[in-house]
UniProtKB/TrEMBL annotation:
InterPro entries: RutC-like_sf, YjgF/YER057c/UK114. It comes from the Bacteria. This is Enamine deaminase RidA (YjgF/YER057c/UK114 family).
Length: 128
């Protein structure tokens, strides 16, 4: 994998502008902050984010992949304001699961998710 950083652009923090990769593609459906029993771990954003990422990693493991193979993440959050006000906790939760691997990423605010208690849903693409 190679991070793509156009000359003169400011360095992104917590994500990459782009990733170049070749290999076997793995697509992970949207994961939310509930555990393997379908119980939400919390009603707060950061713990839900951490659990959603743990769920992504669990699906990746089924393809003999890990966080280091992720080339793209898309996060759907129900509150931009809550996301921005909890960036420190979000960063800690992210690093607890993904380490210091920062793929191409988008964060999108949505009006709601299908599961009413969900505050975040995360899709992933990996290349192994």
């Amino acid at each position: 994998m190679r991070r793509l950083q156009p000359p003169g652009w400011p360095a992104p923090r917590g994500y990459a502008n782009g990733i170049e990769a070749s290999g076997r593609l793995v697509f992970v459906a949207g994961q939310i902050g509930w555990d393997e029993t379908g119980a939400f771990v919390s009603d707060e954003l950061a713990p839900q984010l951490e659990q959603a990422l743990r769920n992504v990693v669990a699906v990746l493991a089924e393809a003999d992949a890990g966080p280091e193979h992720v080339v793209r993440l898309t996060w759907f959050v129900t509150s931009r304001d809550e996301y921005l006000s909890s960036l420190r906790q979000v960063g800690e939760a992210y690093r607890a699961v993904m380490g210091r691997h920062f793929p191409a990423m988008s964060v999108v605010e949505v009006s709601a998710l299908v599961e009413s208690r969900a505050k975040i849903e995360i899709e992933a693409t990996a290349v192994v």
